[in-house]
Design a protein that fits this description.
About 60% of the residues lie in helices and about 15% in strands. With about 425 residues, it is of the alpha+beta class. Among the domains are: about 1-145, Beta-Lactamase, CATH 3.30.450.160; about 285-420, Heat Shock Protein 90. Strand 3 (about 105-110) and strand 4 (about 110-120) form a beta hairpin.
Length: about 425
């Protein structure tokens, strides 16, 4: 934009300068030409006055020599039948033609222009006074005036271009500020605001951006409050489930029920706490994927034993730190393991592979017929909500990694994510 404004100012100012300065330059040349001819006319008029008083050749010779033009060889008086008095620069035919026309005229000569002024003496003879004007005299002062005009054009063009550059810099700075603030707002920095600068339109856009950011922040706060309220409402049925689990006879099923109630209570508490933080929460969280996986496998292994599912874990000998909260990682792991138990028959084996490269879960079930359709949010070809793979996909995007959905080495589905190289 800045360079475009500079070019626009340069083009417009150049055209305006040419439109005014070219005619002005021609006018200056014409003025200099007319001034030289006017001075020649004055010289000729003075000689006509002398001829009216005394037309004697000797007196005329002295008169011609006494003038400025005559002393430099630029003036001549043509008497009929006599040689010119002074220095003539024209042919006799040109002089005779001017005498016959009996009116002032100019004639081209080598090195300049001659001004001819015919006059009639008292005895009826026609005398022609010739004043020669050189080319340099007709251009006197023209080059200096043209140089001044060229300097003025350069100053005008440079000044307008500099002004356009400053204006463009202000526009570009305000536009970039607005664009950068928009990118930061889109990245989650909801407290981003900008100071309105630049032209009125950009200031209006900045004010609209600030208003939009404030409205978005208030909207998200209301959504968080709603999520917290809904999570709190789940406490009542959860309490009933806990009481039923406590009333069950001791055994693995009762233990699993009580563990599930405890986990659900922790998740609800985490949701309520997280939503209450609002958009001001800026603390970076991280957790160990291996640690979370071991904790969740302790829960899912009980169900795997009940369903006689063979399973194994590959890797996990060193920590894998993810820039996600503990609850978010639990949600991803449960979504991946839950798909195995929800969409495969009892007794179908599964394998969990964890490493710094990512997390993969393979099973020996029928697999996923259409992986592209399966990752669409809300769609499921197996009668579920269709949100499990979407949870894994969003986690992969958060980690700047890649979602993996396909067929694994056990013959069934492979679901997971591969981490990017930071």
């Amino acid at each position: 934009m800045r360079w475009a404004l500079n070019r626009l100012a340069l083009a417009i100012t150049s055209m305006v300068a040419l439109a005014f300065l070219v005619p002005l330059a021609v006018a200056i040349y014409q003025i200099a030409h007319d001034r030289a001819i006017s001075e020649a006319r004055q010289q000729a008029t003075s000689m006509v006055t002398v001829l009216g008083v005394n037309a004697d050749p000797t007196a005329l010779t002295n008169a011609v020599a006494s003038t400025a033009a005559g002393s430099t060889g630029m003036l001549a008086v043509h008497l009929p039948g006599l040689d010119p008095i002074g220095v003539s620069h024209l042919s006799p035919e040109t002089v005779d033609r001017a005498a016959q026309q009996r009116r002032s005229a100019t004639a081209s000569a080598e090195g300049g222009v001659a001004y001819l002024q015919p006059t009639v003496l008292t005895d009826g003879r026609t005398v022609v006074v010739e004043v020669f004007v050189t080319d340099s005299e007709m251009r006197r002062g023209v080059w200096s005036a043209w140089l001044a005009l060229a300097g003025l054009a350069v100053v005008l063009i440079a000044g307008s271009t500099l002004f356009a550059d400053r204006l463009g810099a202000q526009l570009v700075r305000s536009t970039r500020q607005l664009a950068e603030a928009s990118r930061r707002l889109g990245a989650g920095e909801l407290g981003e605001r900008i100071e309105p600068t630049g032209p009125r339109e950009l200031r209006d856009a900045a004010q609209a951006f600030n208003g939009m950011a404030g409205d978005l922040r208030r909207l998200l706060d209301r959504e968080r409050e709603l999520a917290a309220d809904l999570s709190h409402r789940l406490r009542t049925p959860l309490t009933g489930l806990r009481l039923d689990a406590e009333a069950m006879p001791p055994g693995p099923i009762a233990d699993r029920m009580r563990q599930a109630c405890d986990l659900l209570d922790e998740e609800l508490e985490a949701i309520i706490t997280g939503t209450r933080l609002g958009v001001q929460a800026t603390v970076d969280e991280s957790c160990d994927l291996v640690e979370v996986l071991a904790d969740r496998l302790a829960f899912w292994s009980v169900l795997a034993e009940d369903q006689e599912r063979p399973w194994e874990v590959v890797g996990g000998d060193r920590p894998v730190i993810l820039p996600m909260s503990h609850s978010e990682v639990i949600l991803v792991v449960d979504a991946m393991l839950g798909n195995v138990f929800s969409h495969t028959e009892e007794g179908v084996p599964f394998r969990v592979t964890v490493s710094p490269e990512g997390l993969l879960v393979d099973d020996g079930g029928p697999g996923i017929p259409d992986p592209a359709m399966a990752v669409q949010r809300g769609f499921s070809g197996a009668g579920s909500t269709g949100l499990g793979l979407d949870i894994v996909r969003r986690a992969a995007e958060t980690l700047r990694g890649e979602l993996v959905v396909g067929r694994g080495p056990l013959g069934g589905a492979r679901v997971g994510f591969v981490l990017a190289r930071f």
